[in-house]
Design goal:
Pfam families: 7TM_GPCR_Srj (PF10319), 7TM_GPCR_Str (PF10326)
Transmembrane segments: 14-34, 46-66, 78-103
Keywords: Membrane, Transmembrane, Transmembrane helix
Organism: Mesorhabditis spiculigera
Protein name: 7TM GPCR serpentine receptor class x (Srx) domain-containing protein
Helix content: over 70%
Number of helices: 3
Number of strands: 0
Radius of gyration: 24 Å
Length: 131
Amino acid sequence: MLNALLSADLTKKLHTIACSIAFLGNLLTLYLIATKSNKSVGRYAYLLFSFCCGNLMLTATDLAIVPRELFKALIIQLLIPLFCNYIPVGNLFFSSIFGGIMVNVECTVLLVLVDQMMEPLVIIYFIKCYR
C-alpha cells in the first residue's frame, strides 16, 4: 500500500515536471518564432505560432490521460496472446503428448489468426488519439 502511494506521488511529481518543461519549451519556441524568424519562415510563422499556443493549452490535459490509456492497452495486448495463442496451442501440444482430450485443430488455428487481427484493434480502441 505504501509503495502504491509513493509511486502515485512520484507519478504526480513527474507529471508536474514534464508539464512545466513542455510549457517552457513552447514558450521558448514562441519567443524564437516572434523575434528570430527570417523572411523564409515569415510565411509559416503564424501557423507555427498558433500551433504552439494550442499545444500549450492541451499539454497539461494530454499528459495525464496518455499513460493510463497506454497501460490499459498494454494489459489487453498482454492478455490477447495468452488466450489466443499460448493456452490453445499449449493445450493442443500437451494433450497430444499425454493422451488427453484432443482439441479441434481448426479452432486453434482460428484463435491464432484472431490474435493477429485483434492487436491493432486494441490500440485503436483504447488510445483515443488513434480513433
